[in-house]
Amino acid sequence: MLRLIERPPRHATLRIPPAGSAVVSWNGAAESGALALTIRRADGSVSEPLLYARWSSEERRSLDGFDAVTRIAVDVVRSDVPMTEIEVTSTVDLDAVAVAVPPPPDAPAPSADRPHAAALEVPKLSQYLAAHPEERGWCSAAALAMLLQFHGVHAGVRDVARGVYDASYGGTGNWAFNVAYAGSRGLRAAVAYLRGVDHAAAFLAARLPVAISLAWDEAELAGAPLPRSEGHLVVVRGLDRDHVLVNDPAHRDVAVRYDRAQIDALFRRHGGVAYLLAPRARTAELVALANGAAAP
Predict the structure, then answer these.
(1) Please, what are the domains in the chain?
(2) CA distances from 77 to 20, 47, 131, 270 (A)
(3) pTM surpassing 0.85?
(4) 199-209 pLDDT, tens per residue?
(5) Sign of the dihedral through C-alpha 68, 23, 140, 217
(6) Which end of the chain is flanked by fewer CB atoms within 10 Å, N or C?
């Protein structure tokens, strides 16, 4: 489930179904700012403002606010008592703010009757740059750069990595910072939870490639460029009955096919987290697709 408010007030409240975890993301052009989250929970309790993120032209930091019940770990809010509302307080004006919560484990995908999705022409970019041989974990930056370039935004992997690097986390994989960067480049972007590969098919039918987060152990993903991964971002650009067509920034060829059933299982098991990008004029459509509407 994705809730999104465009041009929100600096204190914006987003109601959500009772949930034990959530991801807050935002879009805005301000060069510096900070966010705090106030959590209202199913038992009627309310947290103090929990520090979430701070950014400037020099750096970005996740702040990991917490109280006795609710805690933030980089980009995920977790609560022992289900959350029902999240108030996002910003020190600057934002163009959009969003909250995503996972769907129920048995939630069906909205497009199970769409076994195929024609391949989209997504630029191929590797996460391994000859000029930066020491950087081996730029999958998120590379995946985001591919999506940005698909939408006509000039963005190289190195520039994206610099723009999303979380100085607290020590890496480029902060989901919220990645979509915040895309939002700063003129697109609508949000972190969302999808209900498997069939859900991604609805976005492809609307000509919107998505980046999805996977994790696997040895022998779980045939043809994978790495024997195992605790978290890896790839861009889904097409589907046929048996395969998912992806741009995998860790693969030598980048544009590859993986077994559809394997990708679906690994994606669901890892939580179903995805980066969603679209032109700002298509914001309502993006949210509708995230929440289960099928593409026309």
Answers:
(1) 2-100 (2.60.290), 139-290 (3.90.70.10)
(2) 8, 12, 36, 16
(3) yes
(4) 999 999 999 99
(5) positive
(6) C
